[in-house]
Structure formats: structure tokens, C-alpha cells
């Protein structure tokens, strides 16, 4: 029996580009799906993709059409099931697709892979019991993302990012971090950010932990320690090209389970989606947590 494939399309992804492509997308999917049972569902609101993924029948493929936020919501609906994740990356960042090698396929190639390519498992992360696919960022980058929500609506793209970045820099006051790996304290001190990664990149290709491998049964962790405002501005260009890894205020760890504890609630994001700020994040890897169509392993 051929599998049932549900495409979950987020019209808001890619800054609304997906919504503008809806008809073309549906045509393409139905053209390529001959012989398969396929349905296309358009999300109506944030969180809807998780419900749709949960409701899909056992052993089906559920394909996230959008960016990392859409993938994140579908992952949340699939974890612990025998369903397979597909990804048609049309977001702004697409770091999950980059992690599993699907970002270079182009639209038709990605639809084809979602429909018919064999599936291989990847690790997932779990933070305070909630799954994530590619990234967990705690601290500075999440604060910038949060600030962007308050930015004036006329600011878009890079101006919006710079507004948010300098807004957070102006108020910069580093929390005190204690990082435990398997119950051992491995780092303590002021911290700009902590990234607990399954993927090497976040934020649309920023190689925060270039050595991360999503099939090694471990999370790769970067801790940025005490940074001044000027220090942050100095490290950013190096971060974009992966030249930050030898910076003396950066530390890297790899492992299965971490406890991230702060002296106050600190903002965080999973796969680029903000989660409620907390002073404690319990994080672990879920080895081979989800099968992904078109992932070569
Ligand atoms: N119908 C909808 N209307 C508005 N927002 C929606 C709808 N459906 C889903 N969303 C939200 O859209 C947001 C953005 O989606 P997504 O992250 O996939 O796109 P993106 O931001 O372009 O990509 P990336 O995260 O890769 O940069 C998500 O937070 C999701 O919850």
C-alpha cells in the first residue's frame, strides 16, 4: 500500500512568499504525486501545523512546507510516532533543511524527495520535555529575536535586525550561567549566549557549532562567556564565517544531557521560535528521534 502524504503548507513562511505560491505549489504537488495518496493542508494559525501532524494517520509522511518554524511545529506533532517528516524548505532560514541536506534540491526536487525518497532517522533535541529539530539558542540571540517583535512595522529585513541588535546591546546585562553536563558543572560565569545544537547552523546559515552532526547521538554546545558591547560587535562578523571558534571567550562541549541554569529568567528560542523565558533549561538529545524523507544519513 502506498503511504499517505500530507503536505502542511504555512502561507506566512518566507515572509508571505509561500502564500503567494499556493496555487503553483498545489499544482506541482499533485502533478508529481501520481499513484500516491496526497493531501495539501494550509495552516490557519501558529501551532496549527502541530495539530495537523498529530492528526495524520500512522505511518504517513507529513511534509512541512515553509521554514524552520513550520518544521519545528510538525516535528512537535510527529515525535514519538512512526510517521516520517518531509521538508520543502521555502522559509527565510531553512537551517533544518540545511542540516539534512535538503536545502539544495530546489522546489521540484524537494517535493519529489518528500514524496518518494527513502527516510533515515536524525537525532532531535529535547528542552524541558519539548522537542526541537535543529537549534536551541538561549540568551543574546533570543533577546534580539524578541526585540524584533517590538520593532516599528515599517522596519524590515536588515534594518529591523540592526534596530533589535542595538536595542539589546544598549541594555546588555549578562546573566550568570551554570552549565552542567551529565550532572557535572562544566562552566560557570557571565554568559552572552548558550547554543545547544543538533545542526551546525542557526539563524539562516550561521555556523555557531560547525562540528555538530545530527546523527551522532549528541548535542553540540557553544557557550559565549563575558562579552562587552564592543566585543559583541567584533565577534559578529567572525561568527558569520565560522572564524569565531578559536575566540578565548567561547567554549564548546558535546554530550547527551545538559542543565543550563541562570540567576534570572533568560529568553530562548527553539528552531528560531521564541519559547517562554526560564532560569532553567533541561536539555537532552533524543537519538534517532525522527525519520526524515530524503535524508541520506
Ligand atoms: N496561517 C498562519 N498565519 C500566520 N502565521 C502562521 C500561520 N501558520 C503558521 N504561522 C507561523 O509562521 C511563522 C513563521 O514560519 P516559518 O518559520 O516556517 O517561516 P520563516 O520565518 O520564513 O522561516 P525560517 O524560520 O526558516 O526563517 C511560525 O512561527 C508559524 O507559527
From TrEMBL:
Span of domain DAGKc: 1-131
PANTHER family: LIPID KINASE YEGS, SPHINGOSINE KINASE
Swiss-Prot/TrEMBL GO biological process terms: phospholipid biosynthetic process
Key words of the record: ATP-binding, Kinase, Lipid biosynthesis, Lipid metabolism, Magnesium, Metal-binding, Nucleotide-binding, Phospholipid biosynthesis, Phospholipid metabolism, Transferase
EC number(s) on file: 2.7.1.-
Cofactor(s) required, per the database record: Mg(2+)
Protein's name in the database: Putative lipid kinase YtlR
Organism, scientific name: Meiothermus luteus
Cellular compartments per GO CC: plasma membrane
Single Gene Ontology MF annotation: ATP binding
Source organism, top-level taxon: Bacteria
Lineage per the UniProt record: Bacteria, Thermotogati, Deinococcota, Deinococci, Thermales
PROSITE patterns: DAGK (PS50146)
Amino acid at each position: 500500500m502506498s503511504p499517505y502524504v500530507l503536505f502542511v503548507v504555512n502561507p506566512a513562511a518566507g515572509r508571505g512568499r509561500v502564500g503567494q505560491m499556493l496555487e503553483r505549489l498545489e499544482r506541482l504537488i499533485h502533478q508529481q504525486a501520481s499513484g500516491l495518496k496526497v493531501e495539501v493542508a494550509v495552516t490557519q494559525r501558529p501551532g496549527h501545523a502541530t495539530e495537523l501532524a498529530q492528526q495524520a494517520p500512522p505511518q504517513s509522511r507529513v511534509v512541512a512546507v515553509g521554514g524552520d518554524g513550520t518544521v519545528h511545529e510538525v516535528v512537535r506533532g510527529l515525535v514519538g510516532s512512526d510517521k516520517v517528516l518531509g521538508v520543502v524548505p521555502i522559509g527565510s532560514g531553512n537551517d533544518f533543511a540545511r542540516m539534512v541536506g535538503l536545502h539544495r534540491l530546489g522546489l521540484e526536487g524537494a517535493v519529489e524527495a518528500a514524496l518518494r525518497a527513502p527516510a533515515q532517522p536524525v537525532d532531535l533535541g529535547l528542552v524541558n520535555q519539548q522537542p526541537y529539530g535543529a537549534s536551541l539558542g538561549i540568551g543574546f540571540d533570543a533577546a534580539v529575536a524578541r526585540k524584533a517583535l517590538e520593532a516599528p512595522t515599517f522596519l524590515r529585513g536588515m534594518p529591523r535586525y540592526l534596530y533589535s541588535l542595538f536595542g539589546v546591546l544598549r541594555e546588555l546585562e549578562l546573566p550568570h550561567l551554570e552549565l552542567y553536563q551529565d550532572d557535572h558543572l562544566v562552566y560557570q560565569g557571565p554568559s552572552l549566549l548558550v547554543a545547544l545544537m543538533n545542526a551546525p547552523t542557526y539563524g539562516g546559515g550561521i555556523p555557531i557549532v560547525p562540528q555538530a552532526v545530527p546523527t551522532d547521538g549528541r548535542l553540540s554546545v557553544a557557550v559565549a562567556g563575558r562579552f562587552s558591547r564592543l566585543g559583541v560587535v567584533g565577534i559578529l562578523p567572525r561568527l558569520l564565517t565560522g572564524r569565531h571558534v578559536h575566540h578565548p571567550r567561547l567554549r564548546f562541549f558535546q554530550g547527551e544531557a545538559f542543565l543550563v541554569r541562570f540567576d534570572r529568567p533568560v529568553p530562548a528560542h527553539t528552531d528560531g521560535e521564541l519559547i517562554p523565558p526560564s532560569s532553567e533549561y533541561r536539555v537532552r538529545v533524543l537519538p534517532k528521534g525522527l525519520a526524515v524523507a530524503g535524508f541520506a544519513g
